[in-house]
Amino acid sequence: MGLLAGACRGAGDQNCATPSTLPVPRFVSLKFAEVNARKGPGEDYDIQWVWHGKGLPVKVIAETSDWRKVQAADGSVAWVNKRLVDGRRFALRNAPTAATLRAEPRDDAKLVAWLQPHAIALLDRCEKGWCRLKASGVKGWVRQEDVWGGGPPPVCRPRPK
Known about the structure:
Blueprint: E1 26-30, E2 34-38, E3 47-52, E4 57-63, E5 67-71, E6 77-81, E7 85-86, E8 90-92, E9 99-102, E10 111-115, E11 120-127, E12 130-135, E13 138-143
């Protein structure tokens, strides 16, 4: 079982020589309400804790063919089975205060809602330092640095066949 990390860092002219053929690092989300965080890449490794939070964004920092080493917003690192993560991107307000959601990606745009501390929202896209989120039927833009999980998706070419 080979461990690969950092094989592709998002440059469009690089191949992603990872088991998933996806770039590392990259953001994913937890697929289920409860996900076991293990000490190593396999079910024979101890469970360190259980994450509670479907949609919680985590960053893949290494992978094997069946396991993903992920980092949470608080810096904790654990291994999860690839079946337990989803490629859909979410963002987390990881700060003790609310962030403003704006109608447009500008500081002077109309305020549409507040993203409360520890709130998770579906991430539509990020561009020019802003991310478009959707939560509870409300859509709006938040500064990229105000959420964990933001930023443009990494891009790379598929491995040659």
